[in-house]
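_Per-residue structure_
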Amino acid sequence: MSDVVFPPGFLFGAATSAYQIEGGHDADGKGPSVWDRFVRRPGRVHKGHTGDVAANTYPDFRPDVAIMRRLGLDAYRFSVSWPRVLPSGRGAVNQAGLDYYDRLVDALLAAGIAPFVTLFHWDLPQALQDEIGGFAGRDCAALFADYAEVVARRLGDRVGHWITLNEPWVYATLGHLRGLHAPGRRNPWAFLRVVHHQLLGHGLAAARLRALSPAARVGLSLNLSPIYPATDSDADRAAARLADEATNRLFLDPLCHGRYPAALWSRLRPFRPPVRPDDMATIAAPLDFVGVNYYTRARVRRAWYVPFLGLWPDGLPLLTGEVKPEGEGDESVPRYSGMGWEVYPAGLFELLWRLKTEYGNPPVYVTENGAAYPDTLTADGRVHDEARRAYLEQHLAVVAAAARAGVDARGYFVWSLLDNFEWTYGYDKRFGLVYVDFATQRRVIKDSGLWYSEFIRNRRAG
């Protein structure tokens, strides 16, 4: 890929999230999160796995910072655990928890790695879920802004990039409509309140962050996916348009245009939350960047609709995209990842181009991109994950092409730095550049990680 050129100052990094790697679920005064509660409900997570230990970074993050430095990363995206900082979601600060992130930021900067801090990656304090229904309650938006201020007062002198929310569509849809993620609700009224209050919380938090650190850049990360009709039928085309509104435009339109998508919002009239006069202006305050989390495309059939106003697809094709049919595919050149998701790099270009042409060409960071495969540690002490290496190479080439076409692309973060607790899949799915033996906590940089390191070095040399 010596001919692939990126803009000056483009950042190469990797990403993680607190619940997926930290462990220390009740250490040093941390309060429980909705995921701490959810994983203990029988049948919710693969083999009953939990994030109690995960990749165990809370006791000592220094070995992983050393790995990042060895890889040559420019930046590291990590999340702060809200209940580790505020065990009850509000009120008294747990200084030990805040100290952990303070030390992590210092260690990253000492290693020459820029911290990108995500404030909410789904681990809501359980106390707020119990007391006000979490983000289903409007007060949660203001409490989120208070939490953002607590973190920014401690870290804001050294953190230049803040990500308020990670994938609010997933948290609202899987957590409150489908009940597949924490907190495990199945309620369309709660679902739309969670959508609106997360966005409102983003706007309120962004204002606090900018007031405390005027030079900082503030954005959020959205899981975006190009939506295609499964056939050329009018019914499937209409389904694809509505599905696009229900996933991509449900967040992009209010953030960038100050309004919810009209056709969808009209259809959702019986379920809409109260929207106060100033809400949309708060939500639509200009973004410093948009984080794009991309894994695959989606195809929609009208036949997939289920009773909730004919919108929500059975089997979650809006999340998982084109799922591998049984027995299909030449696995010597994988068309599908270990998640069963189609490998479709062109979809990333389509999304980046759409942000340029429909949403004002904001600065963009690809804040998650990667693939799970069934990695094994071989007798030579290596993990030969050629499929992941190829996946990353293809998607990086797409980002470079988008930048050449005028997209304001600023950086790329592999998901994930480490193998981790992959939500309801537990430890069954591995996305990491670094293999983690969860029994011993041994780390091994995979071939894809070694390739990424060399790729970064070559870009700097060029």
